[in-house]
Design brief:
The chain is mostly helical and 255 residues long. Helix content is 71%, strand content 0%. It has one domain: Up-down Bundle (Vanadium-containing Chloroperoxidase, domain 1).
Amino acid sequence: MKFNKREKPTAGTPITLLDMNKAWKISLPAGIVFLLISLYLWWQQGIDEMVLFHFNPARIAGAPIVIVSKWLSSYGMAFITVVFVLYLLVSLWKASLDAPLTIYLYTIMSFGLSGIAGDLLKEVFARPRPVAMFADLVYVISNAASYAIPSGHATKSVSLVLPFIFLVSSSRNIHKTVKVIVGLTAVGVCISRVVLGAHYVSDVLAGVGVALVGLPLIMLFSNMILKRMKAEMLPTVSKVWGLLLIALTILFLII
């Protein structure tokens, strides 16, 4: 009789995977609600058009809210990644900042996969931008040529901040501060797209919905990667993730 040889166990400590309960119980249902509201507003049209025209005088006058919106639209996501890179650098030096290093993999995967999903959905829905529908009636500050729904800026900015907001403990004041800073910046990016006339409200809500629905699915995919790694590798690998965040920052600044 032949016996199967046992595989030699891999040396090292398994990585502690983050709890997915919040992602399934809060993020997924919330994302579905956002998507349903978005579809209703698209069908209803009245609210979308009302908000679009409401900000038209501000866009024409170059009001302060428009100036701030331009900055947030152009540099908001870069600001978010800079905050994460700075936190990562400080946490590698100061052990008391105990946000799990795996959070950066979730962040990169969330941005990448939700962003791709959002771009694909644009092609599926093929909704024209406001400028294509009301070119002679509204002043729009946007040169984007892609379809409208879901908003790419909303999808990507929210997907960047969701892992930190949902998965990092709020027991430390520094974590609360980071969450408030990046959360408000992401909300500002979303609002800026409406203020500038680049998107309808429903486009932005759809982008938020895509990011929220994507979080638990992205965690499942990321956990498949993390199960193949060991905890001893995290300090080194997290530096690679940090470099990827720096690369994203540069990309956000040049596009």
